[in-house]
Design goal:
By secondary structure, the protein is mostly beta strands. It has a single domain, classed as Outer membrane protein transport protein (OMPP1/FadL/TodX) (Porin). It contains 5 helices and 20 strands. The strands form 2 sheets. The chain has a 14-stranded antiparallel barrel. A two-stranded antiparallel ribbon has the order 13-15. The radius of gyration is 25 Å and the shape is elongated. The N terminus is likely disordered.
């Protein structure tokens, strides 16, 4: 969305044009912080993500690969995450002077109900005749987003002859991480190290509304409601990137473990195209008064499909953890992690040379984001209730990296979050099954002021009221051999 400050026609033009940039690629399903999915490994998730110093199952490949060195057997695990976000947004996008763009102010809106399914799996092998050397591969879904909103309709009197799409703000983005990993004990019963390679594929669908000022292609422009022509834009892109995951696990005493892990930043180079469809208005009176307006005021559609390149910059992360074993039945864990979301400072949209909108106007090529680095912490507990039954619980606090100046309903991450988890597992012979329930409370947030981070006259956020709650269920099955 964008708006414009009360003032010159140039200011209107710049602000409304910037809508194209701002509505591009804004994620809606980012449940830990940013677009990170909390849920790699059922055991880790049920302990709130406080897992780096325990790291005693396949998901150590993500949290701390050094922990794989101490797996007692080879194992294969399949996990399914189901996540049900319930966000709400009440727009307050009335501009100075009461100018409206078509967003539905004052009413609480919800996206189409969706349940997201994220499968994860991993297999790690205890190499014979090699002391505590493990190797294997995990296939993960660490990042994802998705929502489908009906937020916009053309202004009364615009009189488009083809109905505008109801679901006009939509995003689906998923990163698949193929994660070969190796871990080795360096000092017997004391120190291990692990190394993983993240081979990541990103797949994007983004569908949004943007505006083209009529003054861009008609001398002097047209009066309201034809001052802005409405364009529906659907982007599809896909690409690859890679990074590294490192970890250390230090057994200080039989009762205390310390751990450190680092994930490098990853750049995913996306390549695709944007289908742009302008919904033209119909006004016979203006056409008769000025025949040069016939191409623009006769209704119907105008469209094209320019090619696009975009680099999505995923963050690096440092994490530290401690595990304490006060008895044979209890394990207590705590983690702290710093995530470099400031890599999301802006997105540069690289259209191929000569690309324009269907009306021949320039396509915006910059999305200001200015996300902030965040520090999160988590606590976990595991209790061996019976010989084969373990119960777990966890808590974590995840600040949002998104500032007021770029907040949008397209982000699930609209405010700071507290996550509560409870779960358990049952093991018999070579098998283990487990379940974890997750509740994420997202703080209410209200933004009243527009933001214009790069002082280009384009507002970069969606003022309004934001509320959200998220529910998750996690299931897994493990086979050891």
């Amino acid at each position: 969305m964008q708006a414009y400050k009360q003032g010159s026609l140039y200011m209107k033009k710049a602000i409304v044009s910037g809508c194209a940039a701002f509505l591009f690629l804004l994620p809606s399903l980012g449940l830990a912080s940013g677009i990170l999915i909390p849920g790699i490994g059922d055991k880790a998730t049920s302990m709130g993500g406080a897992f780096r110093a325990l790291a005693n199952d396949w998901s150590a490949a993500w949290w701390n690969p050094a922990g794989l060195a101490y797996l007692e057997t080879s194992e294969f695990t399949a996990q399914l995450m189901t996540i049900a976000p319930r966000p709400n947004f009440t727009p307050a996008i009335s501009l100075p002077g009461g100018y409206d763009l078509g967003y539905r102010n004052g009413t609480e809106w919800n996206p189409a109900d969706r349940i997201f399914y994220f499968p994860n799996a991993g297999g790690f092998y205890k190499i014979p005749n090699a002391a505590n050397l493990k190797a294997g591969v995990a296939v993960l879904f660490p990042y994802g987003m998705g929502s489908r909103w009906n937020l916009f309709s053309p202004l009364a009197g615009y009189n488009n002859t083809v109905p505008f799409p109801k679901n006009n703000h939509e995003v689906n983005f998923v990163v698949v991480d193929v994660h070969p990993t190796i871990a080795k004990e360096l000092v017997k019963d004391k120190l291990s190290a692990g190394l993983g390679i993240s081979i990541q594929n990103g797949d994007l669908l983004y569908h949004r509304t943007l505006f083209i000022p009529s003054s861009d292609f008609i001398s002097g422009g047209l009066g309201r409601p034809y001052d802005n022509f409405v364009m529906d834009s659907k982007t599809q892109a896909e690409g690859w990137g890679w990074g590294v995951n490192l970890g250390l696990l230090f057994k200080v005493t039989p009762q205390v473990n310390l751990a450190a892990s680092y994930r490098t930043p990853v750049n995913i180079d996306l390549h695709g195209a944007t289908k742009q469809t302008v919904y033209l208005p119909d006004n016979e009176g203006l056409r008769k008064a000025d025949t040069t307006l016939i191409p623009y005021l006769s209704g119907g559609l105008a469209y094209n499909k320019p090619s696009l390149d975009l680099t999505l910059k995923l963050p690096s992360e440092f994490g530290f953890g401690i595990a304490y074993f006060p008895s044979e039945k209890f394990t207590l864990t705590a983690d702290i992690a710093w995530t470099q979301w400031s890599r999301f400072d802006q997105w540069e949209l690289e259209y191929r040379a000569g690309s324009t909108t269907p009306l021949g106007t320039a396509i915006p090529k910059m999305v200001p984001l200015e996300w902030k680095d965040i520090t999160s912490f988590s606590l976990g507990v595991e209790y061996s209730a019976l010989e084969r039954l373990k119960l777990r619980a966890g808590f974590s606090n995840d600040p949002t990296p998104v500032p007021d100046q770029t907040i949008s309903p397209m982000f699930m991450d609209t405010a700071d979050k507290n996550r509560l988890n409870i779960g358990g597992s049952y093991a018999w012979q070579k098998y283990e099954i487990g379940y974890n329930f997750e509740y994420i409370n997202v703080k209410d947030r209200e933004v009243t002021a527009f933001g214009d981070l790069n002082s280009d006259g384009v507002y970069d956020n969606f003022p309004g009221k934001y509320t959200s709650t998220v529910y998750g269920s996690h299931f897994y099955f493990t086979y050891r051999f």
